[in-house]
Amino acid sequence: MADSASGMAVSDECKIRFQELKTKTSHSSIVFKIDESLRAVAVERLGKPEESYDDFAASLPADDCRYAVFLYFDSVGKSTIFFFSWSPDTSRVRTKMIYASTKDRFKKELDGIQVVLEATDPSEMSFDIVKDRAL
């Protein structure tokens, strides 16, 4: 496990699942959670390949922070890997600080991210925004 600036480790499973998303498209998305008791970022949820963007967005908690990646395909089949830093206004301040201090180091562990979006409410990560930002 690699350590981040906040002292949070990044589990090997995070990197393995991200590689699977990139190379095998065996997941449409991955949601990551910081487990404070383990002091590590871990995989919380793997999106099935047939799941939609709406399914992915609905999987993020309304009142807690998460990191997530989503594999977007445009109408001609070109893919873009999005990294989301989800930090809703209703989440605890301490949690927001931990996620903010861990984000850059965690992103570096996931080689291949193409677009980064930070969101504090669902409107900041609407599907229209994703389509507009896709490469």
From TrEMBL:
One of its GO terms (molecular function) is actin binding. Pfam families: Cofilin_ADF. GO terms for cellular component: actin cytoskeleton. It comes from the Eukaryota. One of its GO terms (biological process) is actin filament depolymerization. Keywords: Actin-binding. Residues 7-135 form the ADF-H domain. Belongs to the actin-binding proteins ADF family. This is ADF-H domain-containing protein. It comes from Lolium multiflorum (Italian ryegrass).
